[in-house]
Each structure stands twice: as structure tokens, then as C-alpha cells.
């Protein structure tokens, strides 16, 4: 898949390193809030094997509140500008605001990660204009309310239908480079998350690469009883299973460890 001046090769599992430039993300909030530290961390993730860097300036943890586009841009523009000049991997912009995405695609980002799944017509226009690959994610509700008793009759079937509908809408409007994300933890219970991972291969029917983001999320904590900073092993177990069930991209905090786990899972899958 063409991604700006880069090619995404899905013959191996790709690692997307998370770069949160926020004060309130659930795991690494405040750590990389300084542009210098954020750029250094991005470069370290690339050295550790990241194939993509996903830059976000607004927390989407459960219960989080939205911020203005101006505030979001103030956080991320200096980082994306510098990274675009100094690194040799694609930069993804993790935002649901069309004006934020437009500015970031102009200054060096080459991929869009939209947690609202291209439900905004202006976002569709922006992505089509820039011919950028788009990650379409499923989320039930908004970050502020998504974990208030989410319910489904059949979680996989309903998410699959949503993604299918969004793919059709995107293609009608000229977006043909699409990646799907069932949205682990975004309006799902622990059981929903487990069922999505177990039945992940059913999403292959949509004929789009699959991104999975389980990194240190709360469902791992609910199973293990561990806090976010103790959930690496649970993350590694979840990504290995995701790869065997069809994942193509892993969005992670711990690039080095996840890259190593993915190499083994890829080898088993391809044996």
C-alpha cells in the first residue's frame, strides 16, 4: 500500500509505535508532552523496529474530554514537522478533527488514524484530497461515554457491518487505501474484546488490512489484576494471538518487545 513516499508491505506484521503528546493518556500521559522528548522517543521507537509512528495530541482514554483543534495542533505540529524531516518511516496522524488532519498531512504526515471511522464527511474530503491511507476504527459512543454499559447482540457481526458500510462510503468518495480497526476497548467490555480477538479472522472478509491495538489496555488488567505499567506480558500474548488470527498492524507502546514477539508469531503463521 502506497503511503506518501513509503510502501507498507503486509507480508510481515507491521509495528505502529504510539506517540502520545498529551497530558492525560492512560499509560504514557505527560511523559512525552515536551516536543523534544516526543521526538527523541519517536526516534528510539524507530531504532527498536517501528514501521510507522502514530502521533496523537488528544487523549481518547475512557472518560476523556475533547479539546479544541487549536490546542491539538499546538501540541503536535512542531513534532510532526521535525519528524517528517528527520525520520524514514511514515507518520500517522491520530485525530478525528478534519482541520487537524489537513494541517498534519500538509506538513509531513502521510496516514490518517480516525477513531470515529470516517463518519465526518469533511474528514472524507480531506483524506481523499491528500490520497492518504485511512485507518477506519469502530467505536461505540464517544471516549467520554463509550464504556457506559456497551451492549451488542453479536459484537463481531455488528462491528463488521459498521466497517463494511464505512468502506463503501469511503470508496464512493475516492478513498481506496483503507485499513480497518475493530476498536479494542472503545465501547467494549472485556468479553467483547476477547471475542473480537478470538474471531478476528472473520474481518478478513472485508478485504482490508487489519490493525489491532491491545497495548496495555484495561481488559488485560481486568483479567490479570495488574496496572497499566505491568501489562507488557498480557499485551504480548494478545498480539501473538491477533497475528495468528489475521492482524496486519499492531499499534503498541513497547516497540522492541512487540517487534520480537511479532517475528515469532509471523514465523509460526507462515510455517
Structural write-up:
The protein is of the alpha/beta class. It has one domain (about 15-270): TIM Barrel (Alpha-Beta Barrel). Helices cover about 40% and strands about 15% of the residues. It has 9 helices and 10 strands. The protein has helices at about 35-45, 70-85, 100-105, 120-130, 155-170, 190-200, 220-225, 230-245, 255-270; strands at about 1-5, 5, 15-20, 50-55, 90-95, 110-115, 135, 180, 210, 250. The chain has an 8-stranded parallel sheet with strand order 8-7-6-5-4-3-10-9, with helices on one face. It is globular, with a radius of gyration of 17 Å. The two termini are about 25 Å apart.
Core attributes:
single chain; 271 residues; alpha/beta; TIM Barrel; eight-stranded parallel β-sheet; two-stranded antiparallel ribbon; 10 strands; globular
Would you spell out the secondary-structure blueprint of this structure?
Elements: E1 2-3, E2 6-7, E3 14-20, H1 35-47, E4 52-56, H2 69-86, E5 91-94, H3 98-107, E6 111-114, H4 121-130, E7 134-137, H5 155-172, E8 178-181, H6 190-198, E9 211-212, H7 218-224, H8 232-244, E10 249-252, H9 255-270
Parallel strand pairs: 3-4, 3-10, 4-5, 5-6, 6-7, 7-8, 9-10
Antiparallel strand pairs: 1-2
Helix pairs in contact: 1-2, 2-3, 3-4, 6-7, 8-9
Amino acid at each position: 500500500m502506497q503511503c506518501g513516499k513509503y510502501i507498507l508491505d503486509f507480508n510481515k506484521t507491521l509495528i505502529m509505535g504510539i506517540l502520545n503528546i498529551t497530558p492525560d493518556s492512560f499509560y504514557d500521559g505527560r511523559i512525552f508532552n515536551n516536543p523534544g522528548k516526543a521526538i527523541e522517543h519517536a526516534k528510539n521507537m524507530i531504532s527498536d523496529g517501528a514501521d510507522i509512528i502514530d502521533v496523537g495530541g488528544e487523549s481518547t482514554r475512557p472518560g476523556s474530554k475533547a479539546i479544541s483543534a487549536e490546542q491539538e495542533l499546538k501540541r503536535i505540529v512542531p513534532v510532526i514537522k521535525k519528524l517528517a524531516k528527520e525520520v524514514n518511516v511514515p507518520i500517522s496522524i491520530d485525530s478525528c478533527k478534519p482541520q487537524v488532519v489537513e494541517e498534519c498531512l500538509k506538513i509531513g504526515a502521510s496516514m490518517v488514524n480516525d477513531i470515529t471511522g470516517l463518519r465526518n464527511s469533511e474528514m472524507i474530503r480531506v483524506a481523499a484530497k491528500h490520497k492518504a491511507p485511512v485507518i477506519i476504527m469502530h467505536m461505540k459512543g464517544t471516549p467520554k461515554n463509550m464504556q457506559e454499559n456497551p451492549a451488542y447482540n453479536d459484537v463481531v457481526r455488528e462491528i463488521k457491518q459498521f466497517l463494511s458500510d464505512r468502506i463503501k462510503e469511503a470508496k464512493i468518495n475516492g478513498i481506496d487505501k483503507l485499513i480497518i480497526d475493530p476498536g479494542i476497548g472503545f465501547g467494549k467490555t472485556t468479553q467483547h474484546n476477547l471475542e473480537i480477538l478470538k474471531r478476528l479472522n472473520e474481518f478478513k472478509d472485508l478485504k482490508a488490512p487489519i490493525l489491532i491495538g491491545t497495548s496495555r489496555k484495561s481488559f488485560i488488567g481486568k483479567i490479570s489484576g495488574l496496572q497499566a505499567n505491568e501489562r507488557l506480558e498480557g499485551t504480548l500474548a494478545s498480539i501473538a494471538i491477533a497475528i495468528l488470527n489475521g492482524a496486519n498492524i499492531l499499534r503498541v507502546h513497547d516497540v522492541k518487545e512487540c517487534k520480537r514477539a511479532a517475528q515469532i508469531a509471523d514465523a509460526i503463521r507462515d510455517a
